[in-house]
């Protein structure tokens, strides 16, 4: 719960106008924005007042002249409702002056929800979902004489908060790190106009703070790691390693190990850390290991190998014959299967799914469909589904048509026969 004094922060109560403005704003955004208060009011109001409250057709009114009077809501011709039960503690006072005459106004600094306040919980993570336009701009990065780089001034992706509280609104801000970034439209991370990340740049870090409606915050550092164009072939590939995962997500100890690795030109082997990593192969036949966490892998141009690792991963192969590979241990559990998404599987380009290192002796595979998308359900040990692979760009019928299969079982057999599904 955020008290009125906490809400004020550095704002000084130096006039009646300032107080009225800030106190009304606190009541409207913090008190009435509390899910516990909303739920309680739903049980107290009825008829036209309840309808008006649900539609937001009410005014918040102050009661400052009385030492025990609480704020109240007015509903036009439908009367008013006292908020006395929310403010049962002692009042504070504010003194202001009109000429030489002092005026004392009373207010409640805190509130409590009748029957028990619904305790707000702080956000627990920040996620950056890369925009497809930015990703595709890196597919063949490095075709210019100037060398590989991101497009300047580009929106990188959208920020979202992981929060135990439902229906929260969040505010994002950059609080530390390289000054070539900005946040636009409230939740989009963008390179400033004229700014880019280039081959051979030192690691570039930006720390982002997210704050919920109650003022609780979480801090996360994102590190951009640029390749150097050193990899010439598979035997002499450039290795790019992620940073270790650490940090408590606080102002003094932000969460780290969440990397955006940029392969650019050449042949790269990119290893993510245990955080939520974003890996770009760029140009060349690259190998991407997401590691633990919910990762986003973009192969780019060339025949790439994408290994998401444990967690729920998003896999974009890009142009070329790509291999989407799973290893033993990448699966979840029967209670909570891992769910990975292949965004652009293509038989025409020669894409393959490699499960041979994932499957036990009693493994079972089944093609099905969910939400209009083909799904491959895997029982790695034959004791229940613990891995799901979603084909985000194809329905089951479209996948069967591509392989000239009559049904789901026939699809499985024909993908194995054609080498597009490797199981042994």
From TrEMBL:
<dbReference type="InterPro" id="IPR050557">
    <property type="entry name" value="RTX_toxin/Mannuronan_C5-epim"/>
</dbReference>
<keyword id="KW-0964">Secreted</keyword>
<protein>
    <submittedName>
        <fullName>Type I secretion C-terminal target domain-containing protein</fullName>
    </submittedName>
</protein>
<dbReference type="Pfam" id="PF00353">
    <property type="entry name" value="HemolysinCabind"/>
</dbReference>
<feature type="region of interest" description="Disordered">
    <location>
        <begin position="234"/>
        <end position="258"/>
    </location>
</feature>
<dbReference type="InterPro" id="IPR019960">
    <property type="entry name" value="T1SS_VCA0849"/>
</dbReference>
<dbReference type="InterPro" id="IPR018511">
    <property type="entry name" value="Hemolysin-typ_Ca-bd_CS"/>
</dbReference>
<dbReference type="InterPro" id="IPR001343">
    <property type="entry name" value="Hemolysn_Ca-bd"/>
</dbReference>
<keyword id="KW-0106">Calcium</keyword>
<dbReference type="InterPro" id="IPR011049">
    <property type="entry name" value="Serralysin-like_metalloprot_C"/>
</dbReference>
